């Protein structure tokens, strides 16, 4: 008596595991999760004990079969621009640092405690301003992989938004005249079935190039 084997396929649309009988090889089936169709291709055989991961696994004690899974890999990791996002404020902070240090040294040279102390305070204020915005930018991260875009915000508590590239309905780039000159801008991504923008990455470097990468990885 022939024992039928069951193949476990990964849906190419939503990546859900779908169990399919041998008799369905070559046929088109619908994923029970996303209800989108895909063809059940006959997988190549692998030797028993092969450690290479596959997108199809034969159940019931039969050999592992299937091609290698298309692993998710990171393409870009971006943080908001610090200097170019606040160019005039950043220049002001740097002038405070330089001017404050000059005044502190000058005050020490002429024996003026007021001038020296005032200059030191100005330098510290300028440095703290730059440090604050730099650390703040580190806790907003846009990660673009070959499958999805992920926006993470927060230091102690994390807020995460993600959109699969296959589900992207709309990609927008918003730039002011100054931002165009500085090559920064906002990237907005929304998916099918959503009326709101799910990912809004502000003041990232070269947003047009990022949008192009997302489009290139859409099926």
UniProtKB/TrEMBL annotation:
What are the TM regions of this chain, as residue ranges?
87-109, 115-135
Q: Which UniProt keywords apply?
A: Membrane, Transmembrane, Transmembrane helix
- Pfam families (alphabetical): bPH_2 (PF03703)
Q: Which InterPro entries match?
A: YdbS-like_PH
Presence of keyword Membrane: yes
Q: Which PANTHER family match?
A: BLL0215 PROTEIN (PTHR37938:SF1)
Q: Does the keyword Membrane apply?
A: yes
Matching entries from Gene3D superfamilies are given as: 2.20.28.160
> Domain named YdbS-like PH: which ranges?
141-212
Q: What is this protein called?
A: Bacterial membrane flanked domain protein
């Amino acid at each position: 008596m022939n024992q039928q084997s069951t193949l476990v396929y990964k849906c190419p649309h939503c990546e859900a595991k779908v169990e399919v009988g041998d008799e369905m090889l070559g046929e088109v089936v619908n994923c029970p999760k996303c209800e989108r169709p895909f063809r059940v291709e006959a997988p190549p055989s692998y030797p028993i004990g092969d450690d290479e991961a596959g997108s199809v696994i034969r159940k019931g004690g039969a050999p592992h079969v299937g091609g290698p899974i298309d692993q998710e890999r990171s393409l870009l990791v971006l943080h908001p621009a610090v200097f170019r996002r606040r160019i005039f404020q950043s220049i002001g902070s740097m002038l405070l640092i330089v001017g404050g240090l000059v005044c502190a040294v000058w005050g020490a040279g002429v024996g003026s405690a007021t001038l020296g102390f005032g200059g030191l305070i100005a330098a510290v204020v300028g440095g703290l301003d730059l440090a604050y915005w730099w650390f703040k930018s580190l806790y907003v991260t846009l990660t673009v992989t070959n499958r999805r875009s992920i926006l993470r915000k927060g230091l102690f508590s994390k807020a995460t938004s993600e959109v699969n590239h296959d589900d992207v309905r709309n990609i927008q780039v918003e730039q002011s005249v100054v931002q165009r000159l500085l090559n920064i801008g906002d990237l907005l991504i929304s998916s099918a079935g959503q009326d709101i923008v799910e990912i809004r990455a502000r003041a990232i470097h070269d947003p047009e190039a990022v949008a192009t990468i997302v489009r290139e990885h859409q099926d």
